[in-house]
Amino acid sequence: MIEHFGSWLFWTGVPALGIGALVVLWSLGWDAIRRGRSRMRRCPRCWYDMTGTPGLRCPECGKEAQGERSLLKRRRRWRWAAPGLIMAGAGAFGVSPRLQQINWLHVLPNWALLWSLEEPCPGRPAYRGAPSFAQVAPNFRQLLADEVWRRAALGHLSDGQYASLAAKQMRSIDGPLKIRTRARWPRGEHVFVQVERRFAGVRPRELRISFRTVEPREILLRDDTDMAQWLSPDARWGPMEPGNFLPETPPSLERELFDVGIPDPGSTELACDAVVLELGKEVYRGVVRVPIDVSASVDALMSPASDPEFDRSLRAAIRSGLYLLPEQDFVVLTRPEIPTEVAVTAAIHIAVKNGEQVVAQSTVIMSLQPPADPSSRGWDYQPPESQLWRALVGDLGRLHAANPTDPAWTVIVRGDPVLALHDFDSKTYWEGQETLPLSQVVREPPQPAPNPRRW
Predict the structure, then answer these.
(1) Confidence at 334, pLDDT banded by 50, 70, 90
(2) Where are the domains of the chain?
(3) pLDDT tens across 185-211, in order?
(4) In this predicted model, which residue has the larger pLDDT, 422 or 65?
(5) Cα–Cα distance between 209 and 27 in angstroms, integer?
(6) What's the chain's average pLDDT?
(7) Which CATH superfamily is domain 157-298 in?
(8) 302-441: what CATH class?
(9) Does 157-298 match 302-441 in CATH topology?
């Protein structure tokens, strides 16, 4: 904690500062410490006890006090206080350069740090990004937060202190998760959500989400961050720099859509109970609410694409760009480049059928947007992936043994308006249907071209 302990100036200054401070305390405050709030009549010259003595004259030294108040004064030994102050000042002169090198946050107790901690994640609205070049040194709030998280990673906090730290963290970032979904859902349909996780700490955590729907659904998310492996118990900052110790996991939007069930008809909000567990122990519990409207029908929320040219172009793209890989259990669809005046969601349900029986199926959702001005794209623009790979589910063993040339095997591709609801921004969907022989789609897709990037 302190470097260069062999400095004679430091070791001389420490006892001088201590002795001088004790002398000053004894000379100026000992009388008040010993007697407390009680006052007694004493001579202001010789401090003879005049309790019970009438008048203002001291029977010991003969001094006559100016008033009753003069007999109740506290005794202060100024002749001793002056050299004590000089000695303490000289000791402070020798010690002060070393005191500046002490990490006082490192020696404070846990309860004091947590009581002082107002913002567990300072310098960022939700998750702090990389340090800026303008930041020469971390401020006090950053150092305080870093020290608390360092102790949390090393397991130096009690269960109650971990819960207090997690509660402050969640309050500062508006909860452990953020839910994204459509503002309006049709009655009687399953609601799907995307979850932005914000519950990462410095030790492994779990987030359990229970949605309050007709058939309650539970989602379990895990974060395996464990910063203790980067620190030793005696480390000051470990291999990391001050100001960089806070949980650095950025908010990640899960691509997967979570089915949270069917809400009550007429619901105005989607509520869920969120519980954060750290190493199996609960550290946070709260409720997250998202306003939604469950009162309309599918037709009231979305409308089919009415452009015949768009329909013909999409059908042709499906016939030429759909590939079925039975051995890999995947279906591949090449994203079409179709000009459109409005955004259209092509929510496609793909069913592999033998006669009238569905053997395997998959889904593909594409958002086809109007062409944008290339000059409006930023340097980090990435075009959409040119090939969409989706897993097949069903009786895959039967599909593996199928004869593609058998006319009984067909592939039905149709637009699904309910599936289009999974694109939360969609208002227009494709409602067509295309039937293809299995032999036409069982083939290897071409190698996709690399996505160009503007630098």
Answers:
(1) confident
(2) 8-102, 157-298, 302-441
(3) 888 888 999 888 888 888 888 999 999
(4) 422
(5) 64
(6) 77
(7) Immunoglobulins (2.60.40.10)
(8) mainly beta
(9) yes
